[in-house]
Amino acid sequence: MDGLEAGGGLTLGSPPKEHEPLKLFVGQVPKTVEEPELRAIFEPFGAIHELVVLKDRTTGAHKGTAPAAVARAGGSLATYPVALT
Q: How far apart are CA 14 and CA 23, in angstroms?
């Protein structure tokens, strides 16, 4: 049963390997926050492989989102409160 577990659960592929970066989608980024400030927030958790503040191709306006790929670390980013002002 490709992609299905016993009991009808859906499996979305194999679990990530430890050496693969953790891919994050960071939303609700204030339009005043740029890449250097976001890097400073994520660097304590591990090496940053990729971080991009998305901008509109035509206007160059900040879209308020930033996909990121960070090294896996023992800490959990999911429970780390971050206040950006």
A: 15
Fold of 22-70: Alpha-Beta Plaits (3.30.70)
| Helix, strand, coil shares, percent, the chain, to 5 | 15, 20, 65
Instruction: Dump the DSSP string for 32-73.
Output: T--HHHHHHHHGGGS-EEEE---B-TTT--B-S-EEEEE---
For 60-81, give one letter per residue: b (16+ CB within 10 A) or e.
Answer: eebeeebebebeeeeeebeeee
pLDDT tens digits for range 44-65? 877 888 999 999 999 999 999 9
Give the global pTM.
0.61
